[in-house]
Design brief:
alpha/beta, Leucine Aminopeptidase, subunit E, domain 1, binds zinc ion, 2 domains, binds manganese (II) ion, Aminopeptidase, eight-stranded mixed sheet, binds ligand BES
């Protein structure tokens, strides 16, 4: 570990990964991965029949690998991509991730593609290979005193020459998207005492200036001026100031405008409603995963030529108990004027989110998409593999679902069922910040919906997929960076709903 903490070591590391497309493996590439599906001819480079592969226990399931050392010192790794008729970009991404881990002692990895991917758009294949290799190999080493991990520095794609142009275009795009997800993972992994809201504001300022974004960091005085009582209320127990970080991307000629809102709870102790320190709460430094995904996504929009205006609103503070902290029964007056009776200080995400949503609505964006590690209930309902998505508009919902499909960051539509709205009625304010004993992800979404009003809005509850519980494909166990690639894909195809 170096003496100064770098909150985003992947920024430079992924930029430095070299990406090449060639016709035949070069002499210095010691590891060559070859994609193999579950039936039909085995690519000649593997040098083994289907029968021999089967006898060695290799069936070609997606992400399965079989390492075959060669006499000349090189290594071939057979990598499964599943059923031939079902090979899609997600399978290729998972295969590349598994390959990069199987070759974990090599800095350079080559992947040969042939028949098994011939039905797919070559640009998507190139993108998936680079995303998979970089993300499958991701490790967070910033805080170790010494690291034995070999970093990935080169990805080579071996393919027929007529595919090269498309593969290269896709591979470059894949490197940008992989950087976004890696940066989002870094931000989630950074401990709460190192990445505070003011530190996040400074970092966002640096990233914005390096990646062609506008930035405005609202400090506590500015938030008081604006009347952002939701964010300020949560911040009351903290030794550190809050920040509302407004990031803007304005490409020339764009007309449509997408607003992205991220929950940035740098650490969620629960506040006065203190959480127990059991294992699920040891991860609460990751309660800023939504804000991290928005910043990381926006940091690659200029280089990817995203064609629409995007403004990100990151609502940042930690949630701490202290003698100054918000108390049960306190009432927060939010930016829109709506008031909230706070009956559980651990339902803090929605308090900070509504001030950010209000600012986005004031800026007259065409749609707001928010992303938040909002409820344990959503994690219970869907598990870690999918985010819950809620929406007040079918158009924006369809766009989010399409982006989830492309990025393989899966979402599941949950109902914004107005019949539960009365559970949020307060005896003394416009609304209270907790609902009933069940349906917690829905009542949290209904709460946010009030601030979105008539603006087309979708809400991603990523409490489940903020981290992967086991290593699979391009998803190593730990902070997932979920949402960064989904948001880039969303912005890339965004149209006014
Ligand atoms: N950050 C948590 C939600 C969470 C839980 C995210 C587990 C990831 C993993 C959120 O602030 C929270 O504490 N929600 C409460 C709401 C409740 C008090 C209404 C919850 O889900 O228990
Ligand atoms: Mn909480
Ligand atoms: Zn939280």
């Amino acid at each position: 570990m170096s003496s100064t903490f770098d909150p985003v070591p992947s920024e430079a590391a992924v930029r430095a990964v070299s990406v090449e497309v060639v016709e035949a493996p070069q002499g210095d590439a010691t590891v060559l991965g070859i994609l193999v599906d579950k039936s039909g001819d085995v690519p000649a480079g593997v040098g083994l029949s289907r029968e021999s592969l089967k006898r060695a226990g290799f069936s070609g399931n997606t992400g399965q690998t079989l390492t075959l050392p060669r006499q000349d010192g090189s290594t071939v790794i057979a990598v499964g991509v599943g059923e031939p008729e079902k090979v899609d970009a997600a399978a290729v991404r998972d295969a590349a991730g598994a390959l990069a881990r199987a070759a974990s002692h090599d800095a350079a990895v080559a992947v040969a593609i042939g028949e098994e991917t011939s039905g797919l758009d070559a640009a998507l294949v190139g993108q998936a290979i680079v995303e998979g290799a970089v993300l499958g190999r991701y490790r967070y080493e910033e805080l170790r005193s010494s690291s034995e991990v070999t970093a990935l520095t080169a990805v080579t794609i071996v393919a027929a020459s007529e595919l090269h142009e498309a593969l290269r275009t896709g591979a470059d795009r894949g490197r940008s998207l992989a950087r976004a997800t890696s940066v989002a993972r870094d931000l989630s992994n950074a401990p709460g005492s190192l990445l505070t809201a003011p530190a996040f504001g400074d970092l966002a300022t640096r990233i914005a200036s390096e990646t062609g974004l506008g930035i405005e960091v609202l400090d506590k005085a500015a938030l008081e001026e604006l009347g952002c009582g939701g964010l300020l209320g949560v911040n009351r127990g903290s030794a550190d100031e809050p920040r509302m970080i407004k990031v803007s991307y304005r490409p020339e000629g764009a007309t449509a405008h997408l607003g992205l809102v991220g929950k940035g709870i740098m650490y969620d102790s629960g506040g006065i409603s203190l959480k127990p320190s059991n294992s699920s709460h040891q991860q609460m430094k990751m309660d800023m995963t939504g804000a991290g995904a928005v910043l990381a996504a926006m940091s690659v929009m200029a280089e990817l030529g995203v064609p629409v205006n995007v403004t990100g609103y990151l609502a940042c503070t930690d949630n701490m108990p202290s003698s100054h902290a918000q108390k049960l029964g306190d009432v927060a007056v939010t930016r829109s004027g709506r008031t909230i009776e706070v009956l559980n200080t651990d339902a803090e995400g929605r308090l900070v989110m509504v001030d950010a949503i209000a600012l986005a609505v004031e800026d007259e964006v065409d749609a707001v998409v928010d992303i938040a590690t909002l409820t344990g209930a959503c994690l219970m309902a869907l598990g870690p593999l999918s985010a819950g998505v809620f929406a007040n508009d079918d158009g924006i919902l369809a766009q989010v679902k399409a982006a989830a499909e492309t990025s393989d960051e899966s979402v599941w539509h949950l109902p914004l069922d107005r019949r539960y709205r009365k559970l949020l009625d307060s005896e003394i304010a416009d609304v209270k910040n907790i609902g009933g004993d069940s349906g917690g992800a829905i009542t949290a979404a209904l709460f946010l919906a009030e601030w979105a009003g008539e603006t087309p809005w979708a809400h991603l509850d990523i409490a489940g997929p903020m981290r992967w519980e086991s290593t699979e494909g391009y998803r190593p166990k730990g902070a997932s960076g979920f949402g960064a690639r989904l948001l880039v894909e969303l912005a890339q195809g965004f149209t006014k709903p």
